[in-house]
Write a structure and sequence with these properties.
The chain is of the alpha/beta class. Helix content is 34%, strand content 21%. The chain binds flavin-adenine dinucleotide. Residues 10-16, 33-36, 41-43, 56-60, 240-241, 270-271, 275, 302, 304, 363, 427-429, 434-435, 462-463, 468-470, 473 line the site of flavin-adenine dinucleotide (FAD).
Length: 497
């Protein structure tokens, strides 16, 4: 087999797939190398009891005609190949704090009006909040397809205001603050660390519109792979890259664990940056750079409960649920006895019995330290303690859900769970981190990692660079692809789609 390509891309999550299709569209001969047996990374699905479950991505924002992801997806050729299902525009996110429920409505105006109906005395704070969100969106040149100086420093589009500083400046109303911050599961927020721009980009995205991929997130990966292959690209699974050879700060080839060697003119890594730099011989990257990356914190991992529901019993909810026991909505910051403090939950509809759910997925945070003792796979299977831990945690999650959704447990036929170890195994994410490197508003470097490296033809992208999630990774992929393309031509092409 010919192992010479223009570009080798490491990792087939959204970032790898998008870079491959953008570069393939411009005539580059691309090879995508994925260590797992299936492509997709966090887009992967699995089937249990005949039902499709998402391992990661479950909803996408700004996908309505004219909105930013709609343009990007059209440009990539994805809109024609996929079907999307809109979440309830009157309540795409349903926020539950203790026994109080709030709906988030789609569209900036509707969102503000709905908030105002709950907090009529907070008009000024709500207006100011909306302005802050819109401002972050307006300032970002990529989201607006504005002409950019090719030497533009991407990090300049992000301000280093802390999320809590921004929210505290708006109001002293703790309930309103909790409502605004309750979907922090989408970015694994930590009050003393998370920058406001991360919240603003993600909340602003979903406020515009919110959709599921019909049939599950893996359809997105399937569509990408068919596009990449039509462009003449190659997708290899079961190819774990374990080294990159280089000479005079130029990458030459990628060596895979099964003994293959892939040569290319340029290399893109979409895996965790700390893992990416380990692929090179010691000394290629300077010590301070390596140490800085190694010292950066990862976002927390997750514990996910996947539940098959009895037919025709539990109502399908056309919203994402964000449920916190108290106004302390920061689920990632917990004491062991408090776990789980807050959850994200969504159901999938039984198409044979419209209005009823056939499955539910419940996501909450979990520190890697809670499961690190079972990192060794053999040990994990030995004495049943890992399974017992998962059962005990599943029971705690069920108990929390039952408090707000009476009858949920009785409606559950079967269930199983994943922990940060699952993600560690399947995507190689260090500590099973959900979203890769955490952004820290107090650290300039922590806010944004440059795509270019000391190795002239080696670029890093994916969720740890810039912002995570489909929109964040799409932006990062555009920035990364533009290292070989004219950024302004590329933005014009996308905008014109
Ligand atoms: C539980 C959960 C829920 C989420 N929900 C949403 C959501 O609703 N909406 C949203 O927009 N985002 C969501 N996200 C985030 C989103 O899924 C990710 O930010 C995005 O998919 C990351 O894409 P990526 O390409 O950067 O990384 P990944 O998807 O992690 O892909 C990296 C790939 O690299 C491969 N790899 C690793 N090491 C090697 C190696 N040495 N050689 C070859 N291959 C390698 C991995 O196997 C993996 O396939 C969610 C994430 C999680 C975990």
């Amino acid at each position: 087999m010919d192992r010479k390509f223009d570009i080798v891309i490491i990792g087939s999550g959204f970032g790898g797939l998008m870079c491959a299709s953008v570069l393939g569209k411009h005539g580059f001969k691309v090879a995508l190398l994925e260590m797992a047996e299936s492509y997709g990374g966090n887009l992967q699905n699995f089937v249990r009891d005949g039902l499709v479950f998402n391992t990661g991505l479950h909803y996408i924002g700004a996908l309505e005609e004219g909105q930013v992801l709609n343009k990007i997806f059209k440009y990539l050729g994805l809109m024609d190949r996929l079907e999307f299902e809109m979440l309830d525009p009157e309540c795409f996110d349903r926020i539950i704090i203790a026994d109080r429920t709030y709906c988030c409505a789609s569209g900036f105006e509707n969102y503000a009006q709905r908030l105002l109906s709950y907090f009529p005395e907070e008009q000024e704070a709500i207006n100011n909040y909306m302005s802050l969100i819109r401002d972050v969106w307006a300032k970002n040149p990529f989201l607006n397809f504005r002409e950019i100086d090719p030497n533009f420093d991407y990090s300049m589009s992000f301000s280093n205001t802390g999320l809590m500083d921004a929210i505290n400046s708006l109001t002293t109303n703790e309930e309103l603050k909790a409502v605004l911050l309750s979907n922090n599961g989408l970015y694994a927020g930590v009050p003393g660390r998370t920058p406001f721009y991360v919240h603003a980009l993600i909340n602003g995205l979903f406020i515009q519109s919110a959709f599921n991929v019909k049939g599950g997130s893996a359809r997105l990966a399937d569509a990408f792979v068919s596009i990449i292959k039509e462009q003449g690209g190659s997708v290899f699974t079961g190819k774990k890259v374990q080294a990159i050879t280089s000479k005079d700060l130029k990458a030459i080839s990628a060596l895979t664990a099964d003994g293959d060697e892939f040569f290319a003119e340029a290399f893109y890594s979409t895996i965790h940056p700390a893992e990416a730099i380990k692929l090179f011989d010691k000394g290629v990257f300077r010590k301070p750079f390596v140490q800085r990356i190694e010292k950066m914190a990862n976002t927390i991992g997750s514990f996910v409960l996947y539940v098959t529901l009895r037919k025709g019993v539990f109502e399908h909810i056309k919203s994402n649920i964000y449920y916190s026991k108290t106004q302390d909505v920061w689920g990632a910051v917990y004491k062991p006895e408090e776990w789980p403090k807050s959850v994200m939950m969504y159901t999938t509809e039984d198409k044979g019995l419209p209005g009823f759910a056939e499955s539910a997925t419940i996501i909450t945070f979990m520190h890697y330290s809670e499961v690190a003792q079972w990192e060794d796979k053999q040990k994990r299977r030995q004495d049943g303690s890992y399974e017992a831990f998962k059962e005990e945690r599943s029971a705690r999650l069920f108990a929390m859900i039952e408090e707000r959704f009476k009858g949920f447990k009785a409606a559950s036929v079967s269930w199983f769970s994943s922990t940060p170890l699952t993600y560690f195994d399947y995507t190689g994410s260090p500590e099973g981190s959900m979203y890769g490197l955490a952004k820290d508003y107090k650290s300039g470097f922590g806010s944004y990692l440059p795509v270019t490296t000391r190795v002239s033809n080696f670029f890093i992208t994916g969720q740890s660079v810039g912002v995570h999630g489909v929109m964040g990774v799409a932006m990062n992929s555009i920035v990364a692809a533009s290292k070989l393309l004219d950024i302004n031509e590329l933005l014009k092409e996308i905008e014109g789609s």
